[in-house]
Amino acid sequence: MQKENSNALTLTEKISNLPSLPKQYKGMLTHIEETMPQIRKSSSNFYKSHSQFMGTMLDVTAISPIRSVKHTLAEIDKTRQALEEAHINLRKKDIEVRQKEKELNDEPDELKREMLETEIIHLQVQIKNTNNSIHGAIRKMSYFTTQYKSILKKLGKEEITEEEYEDEEETYHIMTCMKQALNAARARGGVIDEGNLIYLFDMGINSAVAQQEIYSYLQKENDMIATNQTPTHEMTMQWLEHCAERFKGDSIKFAERRGFTLKDKKSLAQLEDKTNGK
Asked: Which residue, among 51, 50, 47, has the nearest Cα to 131 in the 3D structure?
């Protein structure tokens, strides 16, 4: 890959030579250029879309562990695709630079040579910016790879099968719906909103029973606060797990009533058996 001509890309040597630039801005550019090494070093910490905290707490928001694995793998795959595209783009731009440098060597016209030089600089800037993005994407992918291994360790597994994923789906959706219904109810005087009532119905769960669960839980929190106790997030998680157990099986019954088989084993992917190589 061609090395970047650093002199051609400095702010002071290129932008300050623009005829249309007022004199007062040249001092500003000198000030910027003097600080640019430090700025570049600090900026390298942020060439990624989100922080690690945001990745875990706000991007991968699945409430159950196997769904968290799925969402984590989706983030890894999305980043992998972006890295592959960036790699191909870098190779193409590198070829373009070499093509234009070859043209430049053979071009006698001064204006055309100047245009080729400018196009080469533009490509070098794009290559540099793409490399910065690649570095951030690699760190993001490494982070989510660590999280994937961490979740598997917590589950005591080396891998997750599609059947295990399907088996957890009912739990995930019950907990997610009740989480949303609870948060909506907090803003609606304890009443579940229409969207989550529909969600409950579509899963075969009686919304009146779900509403009673929420009333009871909110009352428990209010009683604790009245006696100077503090309700915790863990308490809410335990209640959601209780709801998942209480409503477990309702979806299967509703699916069967509609003529569906909720899980078709013959249509699931099978992981390779490591014991016999099959």
From this structure: 47
